[in-house]
Structures are given as C-alpha cells and as structure tokens.
Write a structure and sequence with these properties.
heterodimer; A: 250 residues; alpha/beta; Rossmann fold; seven-stranded parallel sheet; three-stranded antiparallel sheet; 6 helices; 27% helix; 31% strand; globular; B: 274 residues; 2 domains; eight-stranded mixed sheet; five-stranded parallel sheet; 14 strands
C-alpha cells in the first residue's frame, strides 16, 4: 500500500497574533513551527495503516526550505520518505498550491490512499484536497473522524452534530481528515535519529499569479477591556457564586 | 449582479448567508435534496448561470464551494465577513486574524463566516436536481447516543487546561459543570496528552461553543483555543498567572490555583442551595 500525506508548515501562534511591518505575514521571529493539527492526525493514520498493511508512507509539503523540519518530524513518527516543493518563503494561494501538488503526485503515482487535512490552521481555505482530487479524477470524502479499509475500498465517518454520516469510496481515494481521528503518538528518540537518514527529495517551484490575491492581514480588535477581577484564591468563591446567580446560570 | 445562494432550510448559518448574499445583488436561493453527494451537488450548482455563488461557512457550504471551485477552476474565498467589489475580507486562523484579498475570476465563489451576519428570511427556495455521478455519498446516518449535555449547545461550559495537571484532577471540573447543568470542555493540550477525549476540546480544531457562560480553568488562552471559545457570551477565567493572555479576552477573572478555587466554588454553590 502506498500512502501520500500532504502537510503544511505553520507557526505555533501562542496567545497573540503579531504581524510583520508590511502586514503580509505573521511575525514568526520568536515562534516555533509545526503542521496543522488535522494533518498531525493524517500522518498518524497513514503510519498506522502502513504498519498494518505494509507499504510506504510519503509526506509531501509545499513550503520554504525550513519545512524540512516538519517533514523530519513526520518521519520521526514513521513516515518513510519526504517530498519538499520548495518555495522562496512566499505564500501561495490554494489554487496554486493544489496545482503544484497535483504535478508532484503525477510524477510519483500510483498511490492507493491520499490523506490531507480538512483545512490548514493558518489560511483556512478548505479546498486544497478537493482541488487535488478533482484534478486527479479521484473520489474524495471530507472532514473525517474515522477511516476503515475494507474490501479494497474505504468506509469512513464524518461528524454531523450528534450523528455520523457514513461514506464509502473505492481505492485509490483522497480523504481529508479532522483532529480527533486518532491520538497522534509522540516521536521516540530512535525515531528521531532514523528520520535524519530517510530520503527527502527537494524540488524548487515558482508561484503562478495568485487568483485569491492577498492584499494585507489585519489583527481583529479584541474586546479591549481587561477582565474584572473577582478575587484571589478560594476566597473569591462567594463573589463567583453571586456572579453565577446574576448571570442566571446558578 | 445575479447571485446564487445555496441554503439548507432550517439551518441558522444559511439564514445568515442569504442575508449577506442579498447585499451583493439579486439572489436566487437554491437547495438540493436526497442523499448528500458533495461532488454531484456541486456539479448542479456549477451548471447555473450566475455572477456569484454564496453559501454558509459551514462544513457543507465550504465543502460544496470547494468542489464548485475545482470544477470551474476559479478561486474560492472561505469564511468571508465583508466584500467590496472584488475585495473580500475573510477569516484566517479560525477568526484570530483577517485577510483582505482580491478575488479574481468569475463567478465569484465565497462562503460567509458563521455568526458574523444577522439572520434573514430564506424567502423562496428553488430545489435543484443533482445527477448521481458515482462519487461518494452519504450511505447512512448513525445517531450517537447522547452522553449528557452536548458541548456545542451547552448553556454553561466548564473547561480545564494544562493547569489541571492530570486526567484524574478533572473530577473537580466535572463536579462544577454538573452543579451548573453544563458540559465539560478542555484545551488542545489536554486532548493531546490523552487526559480527555477530543470530543471535549474547545478550539479552532475542536468544538466552537455558544454558551451563556464559559469558565476557563488553568487555560492560558492560546489563539487556537480562543477561536473555539469566543462564541460564549461571558467568560470567567481562573488562572494563577495574572499575565495569562486569557485575561485579555475574559470578562471576569479569579487569580488563583484552580485546584483550590474550583472546589471552593462548588462548595459555595452547595452551601447557598442548602
């Protein structure tokens, strides 16, 4: 079984959004990086399926040279190979990203299963996986919290507020997943060491003109007011209960 | 300008989307029926003559317009809060950041960010017909046994973060939630550590709540968490660190160790109730 997982390098934002001076990006000088949470589950699922069925798990990303760090992280929990579509660090829109991914997949086919996150943590475009599926003529199911391989196909489930919708698709298929699909493992020390030796292909890519063309980013205004301090420690309990009564929730 | 708006009758977000669509031009409200088949439904939408297609920024709305954008090979702007000509303002990072962007291509495809627009009457809704194209569709719907108050609809959510310290220590969070007839929530750190199931997570990649009161215990207030919590009308934060970012978004604050404060609130509640 050959499985492809697509991931995206995103900053770990912490408590506050700070922009660069030109308002084109988040100021990331003091931030670490990771992959989108949905994709952490996609990688974990791919590795589990690879362990159960045998085969190869290939991690693909489009990003700056530093995105090697995220590919190695995926390798540390069990991915076998990496493909880095290397940009100059500029942001690509969803359409351009999908087109570059399609080209890279065509050069690597066949895959039995392609896993994407439902949406990226940063841009939140909700479309890259679906675009790739259409371009490759693959069936696609989105927003999954359960995936089961059976009889040469896949049965999957999606949360719909208090219920689950069940879909089936033949393989090969492209699935987009949500956090909660599984509980991703932490990398082991031997896993991290092995990751350094695993093969990584780099290919330089240049962006076509953006069709959803970013003008600038803006940090929305917060509530502005500091919280009203009700008290300190256990002694605050009577004041809290008064508040609960005032709010009609006690 | 002619605007096609996909709606689902009875859906709050659709009612918000159609109001927004009407600010763009003459709206034709459409829906589809039968087993949900995203690719086939999108083909039916993509076949309509129109200058713009609008839907709610819901799971289905975003999914359908992504399919339409792939079919027509035009850009798609998800979770838009405002539009002026071809310039859209849209949410990123679950609403923690917004982007102004030029939306090229025609028809314009966009979804409307949830809870950013007032609801409007759907008016007349036409039912389109989708042809089964053999793509994946919903085969069955499995109802889940409801285990108490659902996080999404709970009036009160009492939530714990890293500061709770362990799965066992959530018993004090559970007790307070139970006394208030509310649901237990948690931050992403907690689900990643395996202390609580992902279904309890409040956040950008978890549940987005709409409670009357949110009680955040031992939660620092990362943007990923706030993206799920900001739908609450009021927020009370309990944290040992007076500098924690959560206090910048909370309405009320208790500075202190949740392991002392939370049981004291539960005890006081029981006392006043006799």
């Amino acid at each position: 079984m050959r499985i492809l997982v697509a991931v995206k390098r995103v900053p770990i934002t912490g408590g506050k959004m700070v922009l660069t001076g030109d308002a084109q990006a988040l100021e990331t000088k003091h931030l670490g990086f990771t992959i989108s949470p949905h994709e952490e589950c996609a990688v974990e699922e791919a590795v589990r399926i690879g362990e159960a069925e045998g085969g190869e798990v290939v991690v693909l990303t489009l990003g700056p040279p530093e995105a090697e760090e995220q590919i190695r992280d995926c390798m540390a929990i069990g991915a076998d190979r990496g493909i880095l579509l290397e940009t100059q660090g500029e942001e690509w829109d969803a359409q351009a990203t999908a087109a570059a991914i399609v080209e890279a997949i065509r050069a690597e086919e066949p895959f039995d299963l392609l896993l994407f996150g439902n949406e990226s943590a940063d841009a939140g475009g909700y479309q890259v996986g679906i675009r790739v599926a259409h371009a490759l003529g693959l069936p696609v199911v989105n927003g999954l919290k359960k995936i089961e391989l059976r009889d040469g196909g896949v049965r999957c489930e999606r949360d719909v507020g208090g219920a689950r919708d069940v879909y089936e698709a033949p393989l090969p298929a492209l699935l987009t997943v949500l956090e909660g699909l599984n509980l991703p493992r932490y990398p082991s020390v031997p896993g991290k060491l092995r990751a350094k030796q695993k093969p990584l292909d780099r290919k330089a890519v240049s962006p076509p003109a953006a069709q959803l063309e970013k003008i600038r980013l803006v940090v929305p205004e917060g509530q502005g007011e500091q919280a009203e301090i009700l008290g300190e420690g256990a002694g605050a309990a009577p004041r809290v209960v008064e508040l609960l009564q005032e709010l009609g929730v006690a | 300008m002619n605007v096609l708006c996909f709606v689902e009758p009875g859906d709050d977000l659709s009612a918000q989307a159609i109001g927004f669509a009407r600010s763009l031009g003459d709206v034709r409200g459409v829906t589809l029926e039968g087993a949900y088949q995203p690719s086939a439904w999108a083909k039916a939408l993509a076949a309509q003559e129109t200058d713009a297609i609008v839907a709610a920024g819901s799971d289905r709305g975003n999914e359908l317009l992504a399919h339409v954008s792939a079919i027509l090979d035009v850009p798609f702007a998800a979770n838009v809060t405002a539009i002026d000509g071809d310039v859209v303002t849209r949410q990123r990072w679950g609403g923690s950041l917004v982007e102004e962007a030029r939306l090229h291509g025609s028809p314009q495809l966009l979804t409307v960010a949830p809870h950013t627009q007032p609801a409007a009457e759907l008016g007349e809704v036409e039912t389109l017909t989708a042809e089964d194209d053999g793509s994946p569709k919903v085969l069955e719907r499995v109802e889940e046994s409801s285990g108490g108050v659902s996080l999404r609809d709970a009036k009160v959510v009492v939530s714990g973060g890293r500061g709770v310290g362990s799965a066992e220590a959530f018993s004090i969070i559970e007790e307070l939630a139970s006394l208030l007839g509310g649901a237990v929530g948690c931050s992403r750190v907690v689900t990643s550590a395996g202390w609580r199931p992902h279904t309890d997570q409040v956040g950008q990649t978890g549940t987005k709540i709409s409670a009357d009161l949110y009680v955040a215990c031992g939660i620092s207030g990362a943007t990923q968490h706030i993206a799920g919590a900001k739908g609450a009308k009021r927020m009370l934060a309990i944290n040992t660190d007076p500098e924690a970012p959560i206090f910048a978004v909370a309405d009320y604050a208790v500075i202190g160790d949740l392991h002392e404060v939370v049981p004291a609130i539960s005890a006081e509640l029981k006392r006043v109730r006799g």
